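Weekly puzzle thread! Below is a chain. First person to post its structure in token form gets bragging rights.
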Amino acid sequence: MTILQHSLDYQALAQQIKAWAQELGFTRAGITGIDLSHAEAGLQEWLDAGFHGEMDYMARHGMKRARPAELHPGTISLISVFLPYLPPGAANSEAILLDSNKAYLSRYALGRDYHKVLKGRLQQLADRLASEIGPFGHRVFVDSAPVLEVEIAKQAGQGWRGKHTLLINRDYGSYFFIGELFTDLPLPPDPPQEEEHCGRCTRCITACPTGAIVAPYKVDARRCISYLTIELKGSIPEEFRPMLGNRVYGCDDCQMVCPWNRFAVDTKEGDFHVRHGLDDVTLVELFAWSEADFKQKMAGSAIYRIGYEQWLRNMAVGLGNAPTSPEVITALNSRQDDASALVREHVGWALQQHDID
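Winning reply:
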């Protein structure tokens, strides 16, 4: 720590950081310390139950997720930010889900990759801070390392953990991204969100198509459609395929039914606006994309990381759940001899759903 940093008014600096964060486009910023020990037991219980599925990295990092100073030595304060992502003018989610010929992609993925957008803004925040006080120890995190993001945000007064395990803010609902800036600065913490406001409501639990919310505040990722369509690399278990419906990348059902999302706002961030008409497009059209089409159109998107093979796998399941039509059958037949065994398997299953062997 420099001589200047020793003499700083950290209370005033904390307020300035929050103002800078808003100037950079973040809706809110909050600050907390690094004691997350209260979350360790729940994390271990979740891992022991195997609820993380094939996401081995979650178990591999162990309790580092709850120990920020082990993850980035020297950390003593955490800055939490959030940024809404609902794209303005996007097709109505409920209407797309009700049209089984359409492809439903989670609303967070309709624009550019949030990892890059938030990381860039958080680094700008760190640079702005460094320009005022000199170099300081820090590291940016956005859903890309073993960080208990929701718990940190809750501790920083950003909202409470809903029964679906996502963060909810009473003024903004839950359709927002969160990110963190770990620092070695002794910033005064904000009061945590002590009270949750879900009450007796269980709409998110009953709305989950696969029953992934196995208890309030507990999700079995192995049943979650977001896990099945994004994190799972191999074959989607047959028992879940009909439950996916036309959800081919992620799922928003638990958020769509949440009463607090009546306060959700459209994003002001242009990078999150709809690209390539992905808010209202047919399964047949997306299934027809070549690998070159996929790479060109999904460049800069969070969807890009699942790769073309998983993309086709997911579309095949969606087509298997679509109403039988000449267009659907023709599309599936076109990939019966696909180079990927994974794609061929899911295409075969889909054709069986239409009583075609």
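Puzzle host: Confirmed. Bonus trivia for everyone else. The chain has two domains: 3-183, 282-357.
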